[in-house]
Each structure stands twice: as structure tokens, then as C-alpha cells.
Design goal:
Protein name: U-box domain-containing protein
Distance between the termini: 67 Å
Radius of gyration: 25 Å
Helix content: over 70%
Strand content: under 5%
Keywords: Repeat, Ubl conjugation pathway
Organism: Brassica oleracea var. oleracea
Structural class: mainly alpha
InterPro entries: ARM-like, ARM-type_fold, ARM_PUB, Armadillo
GO biological process, one term: phloem or xylem histogenesis
CATH class of the domain at 165-283: Mainly Alpha
Number of strands: 0
Shape: elongated
């Protein structure tokens, strides 16, 4: 069967190639690895450029099966010119199943470190940034697009290109428009936190950015809240004087206090660190019960002075936070 697949792909007509590509997807991983040594990637890429959507879909599925679980094949496929072809497909294709396959294929290819620079050297990053904000794109395609950008941005030298392509704004738009407790919000906020870690000024000029992140802290899943707190911590640490007031004015305190008490372990740590930056608690020395009460009262006075009101039900959270900060 392996020999028939190879011969059909290399020397068969288009109909025989289609049948061979379908059969290729059904082979075991070991069998696929063997046939990949026989220069079958080139004819599959040629099929990828077909005007017939069925042929394109079948060749994408076959290439996906070759790339899955094989770093060597991922490198071979990229070297053969697949990224440019995928770029052209995503720019022109309207059939969503092909778009989803292309996005999944890019995600797999981008997981290989040896491919990242080559992928980033194309216009693919700009295209992905534009695509993840489209309403007509499926959630799965958006998730794969964001995951591809995340893979690429693990190389620090690629982050500036991701930022200059408008990713921070696009990700904020995704977070703002989707369910804050969804996987999409989690992945978008995770990538944005990674970007801000390397480039904390990247969201400074984006109107409404702080508001979106505060809403994520209030309404998001535990992971989304963690990433949103991490982003605000990065922003505030980078330029406290400029950003502290803006963060407070957006009403961050109730949600931030909640995360400091019952968030993820990492979320709690970052929330408490951010609280210290926002409230300037670093100089407080807690000696006894009375001093804790005084600190709580001082925090409440500072909050009121900023024009923000915390409901009475939050007082217990404030006390818990102060207690934990002292331990």
C-alpha cells in the first residue's frame, strides 16, 4: 500500500493523486514517516494550489497527517514552500473547512522551533492578526490562529513584529467581544500577557485597554483573570506613575481583591503585588490587630479619594488580603 501511495502521488494523474492523498491520511505514523522520505511533499503542495476546493482540502489533510508528530516533516514542508501557499489560501479562500484546516496546519508547523523564523519572515503574522478579529471566522480557527502567534512569540526576536502587526489591539478586541469565561478569552489574554511581558508599552496607546482587562478580571474564568492581572501588573510595573491612576479609575479594586483571595496560585501572587503597587502598601508594617484595622481604613480612604467605592461586602476581602500580605 505504501508503494502504491508513493507511485500514485509521484506519477499518477490528478484523480490517482487524490485517492493516494486520502489513503495517506489513513496510514499509520510509521508508514507516513517512510513515505515522507520519498519526496511526496512536492506533489501534495502542487495539489494544494488546485482551483478545486475538494483537492485542496484533501491535500491539506494529507499534509497535516505528515506533519503531525514529526519535527523532520514539519521542517521539510516549510522548506518546500508551504507557508507562502497557506498565506495565499487564507487570503482568498471562502470555504470555512479549508480555512480551518489551513489554520490548524500553520499551528502544527509553527510548533517547530526551526520553522519559526522562516514563518515570521513572511507576511503571515500580519494576516493572522487580521483574521483573528473577523466575526465570520470560527472559534476553532481563531484559537488556532492565536496559538500560532503564541508559538511564534516564544522567540523574543519575533515579538516586536507581532506587536507592530497590531496583535495587542486585535487581542483586546477578541477579549472584549467574546465570553470572558471562554477558552478563546483565556488564550487571547495568555498571548497578550506574553507580549506585555516582553513589550510592556505595547498597549499604552490603545483606548479602552484597561477597561477591557478590568472586565476580564471581574467576569473571566480563573485563567483569564490570572492573565488579565498579569497584564495590568506588567503595565503598572513598567510605568506606575502614568498607569496607576488609570487602572484605579476603571474600578479594578473589587475584582483584584477577589483574585487576591480566591484566584489561582499565580493569580493571587500577582494580584497582591499589583495591590501593593496601586495602593502603595509596601511601606505598611503590620504589628497587631489594631494596625491591620488602620491599614484597612487607610486603603478604603485612598480608594474613596480616587473616586472609587467598594461595597461593604468587599471589606472582608480587604481584611483577608491584608492578613495574607502580612504572612
Amino acid at each position: 500500500m505504501e508503494e502504491i501511495v508513493v507511485e500514485s502521488l509521484l506519477r499518477g494523474n490528478r484523480e490517482a493523486q487524490i485517492e493516494a492523498a486520502i489513503e495517506l491520511s489513513n496510514l499509520s505514523r510509521k508508514q507516513r514517516q517512510k513515505v515522507a522520505e520519498r519526496d511526496i511533499i512536492s506533489p501534495l503542495l502542487s495539489m494544494l494550489q488546485s482551483q478545486d476546493s475538494i483537492t485542496t482540502e484533501i491535500s491539506l489533510s494529507a499534509l497535516l497527517s505528515l506533519a503531525f508528530g514529526s519535527e523532520r516533516n514539519k521542517v521539510r514542508i516549510v522548506k518546500a514552500g508551504a507557508v507562502q501557499m497557506l498565506l495565499e489560501i487564507l487570503q482568498s479562500e471562502t470555504k470555512m473547512v479549508i480555512v480551518e484546516l489551513a489554520m490548524a496546519f500553520l499551528l502544527i508547523l509553527s510548533s517547530c522551533n526551526r520553522n519559526k523564523i522562516k514563518i515570521a519572515s513572511t507576511k503571515l503574522i500580519q494576516l493572522l492578526v487580521g483574521l483573528i478579529g473577523l466575526d465570520q471566522l470560527t472559534v476553532q480557527a481563531k484559537l488556532d490562529g492565536i496559538a500560532t502567534l503564541h508559538n511564534l512569540s516564544t522567540l523574543q526576536q519575533i515579538v516586536p513584529l507581532v506587536v507592530s502587526s497590531g496583535a495587542p489591539y486585535a487581542l483586546l478586541q477578541v477579549i472584549n467581544s467574546c465570553d470572558k469565561s471562554s477558552e478563546l478569552a483565556e488564550k487571547a489574554s495568555s498571548l497578550l500577557e506574553n507580549i506585555v511581558h516582553h513589550s510592556p508599552e505595547s498597549i499604552s496607546g490603545i483606548g479602552g485597554a484597561i477597561e477591557v482587562l478590568v472586565e476580564a478580571i471581574e467576569e473571566g474564568s480563573a485563567q483569564c483573570k490570572e492573565h488579565a492581572v498579569g497584564i495590568l501588573l506588567g503595565v503598572c510595573s513598567f510605568d506606575r506613575e502614568t498607569n496607576r491612576g488609570m487602572i484605579l479609575r476603571e474600578g479594578v479594586m473589587p475584582g483584584l481583591l477577589q483574585v487576591s483571595v480566591d484566584g489561582t496560585r499565580r493569580g493571587k501572587e500577582m494580584a497582591r503585588e499589583l495591590l501593593l503597587l496601586l495602593r502603595d502598601c509596601s511601606g505598611y508594617v503590620i504589628k497587631d490587630k489594631q494596625s491591620k484595622i488602620e491599614i484597612v481604613e487607610q486603603i478604603m480612604r485612598e480608594i474613596d479619594q480616587e473616586g472609587e467605592r467598594i461595597p461593604g461586602t468587599m471589606l472582608k476581602l480587604v481584611e483577608e488580603m491584608i492578613s495574607k500580605l502580612s504572612t
